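Fold this: Hydroxymethylglutaryl-CoA lyase
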Amino acid sequence: MNAPELGLPMAVPAEGLPARVRIHEVGARDGLQNEKATVPTAVKAEFVRRLAGTGLTTIEATSFVHPTWVPQLADAEDLYPAVSDLPVELPVLVPNERGLDRALALGVRRVAVFASATESFAKANLNRTVDEALAMFEPVVARAKARDVHVRGYLSMCFGDPWQGAVPVGQVVRVCRALLDMGCDELSLGDTIGVATPGHVTALLSALTGADVPVAALAVHFHDTYGQALSNTLAALQQGVATVDASAGGLGGCPYAKSATGNLATEDLVWMLQGLGIDTGVDLGRLVATSVWMAAHLGRPSPSRTVRALSHQES
Ligand code: MG
């Protein structure tokens, strides 16, 4: 692998944006869960270690979902202990109480549950109604909080749904309130099929803050299916959001969208944030090198524009 020729954007700050953004890195979980290839545990552990070495402070490590549902992450019990010494936050996904038990047994300090804003996705993904899914998460959240474990609530399909189409803002607000009221510390608003545009982002965030949802509890999770992820991120930053989900190298397509383009690439995000003079603590050159290394293991080039621009990777 050639070392990337490191370029950085000129930092020109803009008004009204947070001074610092915390990146919630999802490549090892959301990314690898949606890749066709199953990566060996040792490679995943090395990936998480390299990500931690770039300065990322929150690295979602794996999922304690039943192994038959997500065979790519069936090694959670082996992976977590292999990385738990790292001096970073290592949240894991827990789909239900059984998953929580498995995570707690390994000393996990941060968990995430995965809710849906729409009935059709709740039915497709969890075979439950939205309210039945919330009822399933209630004991998970309560038991995690009783152990002082941080809980993130993912909310998918916040901007559009492949079956339902448009998703009313009020519907998203209702589920967000329910997750916060049950004890979630943080909510990640997911644009699972990548259809959001900046005005929609602004409208949803305004409605949420109008419903007494603190902006400090919000993260955004954009997909770049239609090339809107960074525009949407900027709109969210302008509303005061300071936690942004991204996936190193743009790992992970979306199984519910036709396009292979999925998660916002962390490198593309870091490029924009550095250009805005916003502190992320991330070394972009190291991050690009990590994604080039991972792409070689997956046997396909990274879809990230910034990885391509800063590396000699063939596309
Ligand atoms: Mg995603």
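The longest helix spans residues 130-146. The longest strand covers residues 110-116.
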